[in-house]
Amino acid sequence: MERNEKALKKPYFGRIVFHDEALNKEESLYIGRGGIAKDTTHQMVTDWRAPVANAYYENGRRCCRRESARKYKTSLQKNATTNSMGEYYGIYVQDGAAYNAYSSNANADVIGTITVDVVGGANGGIAAGMYGSNATLNNSGAGSSINVTSKGKAIAYGMKGDNAHITNNAEINVKSTSGADAYGIYVNKGSAINDVSGVINVTGDGNNYGIYAISDGTASGKATVINRGTINLTGNGNNTGIYAAGETATVSNTGTININGEGCSGGDCNNGSSIVWKIGATF
Q1: Does 32 have pLDDT greater than 80?
Q2: Quick one: DSSP state of residue 22?
Q3: In which element (H, E) is residue 2 found?
C-alpha cells in the first residue's frame, strides 16, 4: 500500500503498445519505477526491472519475435512535461547496438515506432529518438518511424551518436516549435547513412539539419556521410540538407534533398544550403 501511494504522483514513465494487425487487437503495457497491481491477477503498472519491460529499452528485440508472418507494431513513447533542463531518449545505448524494428524471423513484418514528445525543456536539454555512444544504431522496416518533437528549448534529434555508426532506412520526423535546433541525424565521429528507403523530415524555426556530421581531423575520428534516400527540410529557420566539418569528414550524395519545396539530386546538391562542408570536409 505504501509503495502504491508513493506512485500516485507519477505512476508510470513509459508505455509499450502491442498491436496485432491480423487480429486487430491492441494491448498497452505501462512501465514504472515500481509495479502496481489491482489484484493478484491484474497488473496495472509493470516494474521497469521486470523481463517484459526490456521491450521498452530494446524496442522489441525480445517482445516482437513471432513464428507467424503477421505484422506486429511496437510503439515506444516517452513524454516529458517538465520545464527543467533534461535529456529524453527513446532508445539509449552505450557500447552496443540498438534497432528500431528487428526480428530473427525472416517471415515476420515488424514495424517499430519511437515517439519522443518534449513539452517543456524551457531551459534547454536534449530530446532524441535514438542515441548511441560507441554504438551502432539502425532504424529500419517498412512503416517504421522515429518521431521527435521539441515544444520548448530542448534540441531535437531523430538519431544521435558519438563515435557511432547510424543507418536510417525508414522514416525520421523531427519538429521543433520554439526555435531550438533540430537534426534528422547527428554524428560526432563515425558514419551517418540515409539509405535508399530512408526519408528524413525536419521542420522548425531554428537551425535545421537533415544530416550533421563532424570529425576530429584524424583517421580514427573521421566522419562519413552517405545519402541515398530523401531529405526534406521545411520551416522558417536556417535549413541545411547535409552539414559536414573536419578534415577527415566526407560526404557522398546520390539521393534527393528538398528545402522548402526546392529540390536537387546527386552532385547537383553541391551548392547553396543543400550541402555545406567546413574545415576541410570533402564532397
Answers
A1: no
A2: T
A3: helix 2-6
Please provide the average confidence, as pLDDT, over all residues in the chain.
Answer: 77
Query: According to the model, what pLDDT value does residue 113 have?
Result: 81
Q: What is the C-alpha to C-alpha distance for residues 142 and 63, in angstroms, rounded to an integer?
A: 19
At 232, list the grid cell. Answer: 526534406
Distance CA 22, CA 159 (A): 30
- List pLDDT tens digits, range 108-145: 566 778 888 876 556 678 889 999 999 999 998 778 89
Return d(Cα 74, Cα 63) in angstroms, integer.
8
Give the span between the Cα atoms of 283 and 270, in whole angstroms. 8
β-pair type (230-234, 199-204)? parallel
pLDDT tens, residue by residue, 142-193 = 788 999 998 888 899 999 999 999 999 999 999 998 889 999 999 999 999 9
Mean pLDDT of 35-60: 60
pTM for the full predicted model: 0.73
Closest CA to 19 of 11, 29, 10, 9: 29
The tally of CA atoms less than 13 A away on the side-chain side of residue 212 is 19
The residues with which 115 forms a beta bridge, in sequence order, are 77, 147
Tell me how far apart the alpha carbons of residues 273 and 212 are, in angstroms, rounded to a whole number.
Answer: 13
What residue type is 275 in one-letter code?
Answer: I
